[in-house]
Amino acid sequence: MKILKYMAGCVLAAGVALTAIAAQAAEPIRIGEINSYSRLPAFLDPYKKGWELALEEVNAAGGIKGRPLEIIDRDDGGKPGNAVTIAEEMVSKEKVTLLTGTFLSNIGLAVTDFAKQNKVFFLAAEPLADAIVWKSGNRYTFRLRPSTTMQAAMLAKEAAKTGAKKWATVAPNYAYGKEAVAAFKKELTKLVPDAEFVEEQWPTVFKIDAGPVVRAVEAAKPDGIFNVTFGGDLAQFVREGNLRGTFENRTVVSLLSGEPEYLEPLKGEAPRGWIVTGYPQGAVDTPEHKAFFDAYMKKWGEAPKLGSIVGYNVIASLAALLNKADAYDTETLVDTMKGLEVMSPSGKFVFRAQDHQSTMGAWVGKTDVKDGAGVMVDWFYADGADYQPSDEEVKAMRPAD
Amino acid sequence: MSFYFAQFLTGLSSASSLFLVACGLSLIFGVTRVVNFAHGSFYMLGAYVAYALVQFVPGSILGFWGSVLAAALIVALVGVLVEMLILKRIYNAPELYQLVATFGVVLLMQDAILFIFGGEDQFGPRAPGLDGVVRIFGEPIPEYDLLLIALGPIVLGAMWLLLNRTRWGILVRAATLDREMVASLGVNQSWLFTTVFFLGSFLAGLGGALQVPRVSVNLLMDLSIIAEAFVVVVIGGMGSIPGAFIAALLIGELNAFGVLVLPQATIVLAFVVMAVVLVIRPYGLLGKAETLAHSAGQIELPIRPASTLAKSVAGLLLAGLVIMPFVTGEFAIVLATDVLIFALFAASLHFIMSNGGMVSFGHAAYFGLGAYGAAFVIKYAGGSMEMALLAAPLMAAAGALIFGWFCVRLSGVYMAMLTLAAAQIVWSTAFQWQDLTGGDDGLLGIWPSEWAKSKTAYYYLALVLCGGGILAMRRMIFSPFGYTLRGGRDNPNRTESIGINLRQHQWAAFVVAGMFAGIAGGVYVFSKGSIFPDEAAIPRSVDALVMVLLGGVQTLSGPVVGAGVFRLLEDEISRLDYWRAILGAIIIAIVVIAPEGIAGFVKKIAVKAGFERNEEQAS
Fold first, then answer.
1. Dist. CA B325–CA B141, nearest whole Å
2. Which domains, ranges and CATH numbers included, belong to chain A?
3. Nearest CA in chain B to A246
4. What ipTM was predicted for this assembly?
5. Chain B residue with minimal CA distance to A90?
């Protein structure tokens, strides 16, 4: 009888202890992730698959200091106002430690400003707008993906080597297109002072009428074309241009067009010989990328896209941050993030202390067609650290914290 | 010279594509009076189905054209299905109510296509046999473009034969002119409507399928075509097929040459042209004055002051709102602030729609103007929140004053389209004038003053401003001004003959509605901290329409109920996968079950149960 009582006591004590441990271990670190999943499924589906893979790996390896990482993701439907409401909910109701996500620049900026006002840590994942870290930059916001200006600078450097002097630009008629063209002009004229811009075309975003655009470019007889259109606009531009031979014997430099998200849909009609920023997928053979690529293929049965890398790197960055930080209050997180080094499938990058931009780079190369599909060839990895403005320039552009 | 000729041909081929879509839309509107937002979805569906079918028959000329026709037929059947299952049940509902159902279809279709075909852009093959270029005056012209150019007039001719040389066509034309008369002559309207939907959807599907060799097939196709298709239909004159053809030519060429002269303006050019056409020719180029329906569905009952029961319910609701911050969490307050803002926004649209009988498809313009007005005060004048909230209604009212002057000269759908054009002008200005508005990057850092910074304080501010605005409009509805407006709505001739300057009253109502929408916009911008052009864009206007119609046009509490239901549904459902399909299905279900709107439905139940007076018996 006595022994039975003793045993019962032991079981009970063990049970209590276990529950206590379990309770502590089960107390997850919650991260709020906001994105336009329903509006842009083509880009955000691979992105989500990327962060889901990274999340799984982090938690399989024991989480963050023994605590599991949990992501609460929400769809903003592509509306900035909704994104702010969701951010409010995540902070006040879900009690998240920090916010991340966003793809569209305007939503990224809306959340950037929310982070500043409410003193919440925010890592902008995908938006490209320069303003996120410069003009509207603030203490609480960091950005992962290389910005418009960084990528335009990468292309300008390659464009300068081609010797083309007379340039035409084709860019969607809104903030992103204008920013890209301005950055490209600025960087190119630094390298080629006598470069001339003879034609500018500003098709309406997502509503390009490619025939007239192509005709107008051709009429200006430029040596080189700088293209910023993307998605369906790019497809139409390429088809009309191929049909009319606009790209023959001309240098074409094109922003983001090497990303599988944009290149794949073009299939066999993908342009050849365009200088682009993008992502050569399976061809990248660094060990850290191979490990990521294989794990992704295994989990999802398809090759990762650029969004997948961004999604993966978001979690890699946040895991590095949370592992390093002594406490999870916003101010400590911000201070820890400054200068934080992150190992990722795309190589090592750093979150710059001066403007909170990561030095994650992009792959720069030429497009080609192999087996009826667009690919990138002759590519190299352009480290984002090499395409940054000087500290003085940053100081002039960015408001003090 | 040859260059301009090539440009001209490019414009022609765009025009043909546009015409195919627009003529189906025009046909459907002419006969059934349904403003079919889902027409763009049919177009998108046609493109996706054709793309999928073409994959089975790569490179075959017969296979390609077979796929195009099959896709158009499949879309036509889907259109018939939508008509028979949904629209047929609500033809007797108040004017425009079908619009909400078609909006539900748009949401449903977006997710259905995403589910079936995936999210990635699909780039179809070129048309077999037509994948090269022809040199005309030395300029390379795509062969497929030449085919499209020919196809426009062919379809126009076929439509003409169909409408003028067949019995069915005669009935359709008769129904376009006077559908009640056709019905009273013993023509089976139900059957006629279904066949019209079949043909209209077929044309939309055909238009989409024919785009496969030209553009990438993607999930944004529906919304990008629908606005332009409406513009073409309105410029041509609603219900006029030749008019649609001329308008499509006009818009196609305008874009082709506009891009050479004023590339920055192409975004809004079509809308400016539409506005000009409507101001000069109020019924479009070849349109005729809208025939007055002999009986516009049910005759609206006079609006009466709320019953004791309704008053107590409203009082309870208000009390609940006042004590809310003490009992709920912080996020509930944030959401409630959203609902209040949209309730005022919807109520301001309801004010002109219900009382004035003036439908606005572009009410977001005033919401946006108010928001930007407030933001300018903060950004450029260094003013305070209080000043900004004063500037919001002023800026919106100023906009409404200008646009309203033009708009009140028209009526019905033409007026609605002119308001849409006005909204597009506001939106594109906000989108393009980067130095002032920040363009797509918007204006940031517009937060409340210190005292209103906490969510609770701001909630009370919103409650006072939005609740006050709603009550003020309600007061106006029962004032002589409100009675005059309703008189003008029900019988413009009689109203004018007793010496009332109706147009001036309508103009004033337009400005009042704009002003209150501006207040909503001002409160909105401080609750979000930032403002982007999206707030003045078409989806925001559609939101307002859906809220009003969902709640019930003929009920004063309708917009408030509609705003609450719509916003809370969206917030709750958007946590799920494929939430747009779910939201669309719920909206359709509400529309079919309660064709008088939610508030109207509740009222009907209350009357049946004996809680409310039956007004017909009372009068």
1. 66
2. 30-147+287-361 (3.40.50.2300), 149-284+363-387 (3.40.50.2300)
3. B140
4. 0.85
5. B331
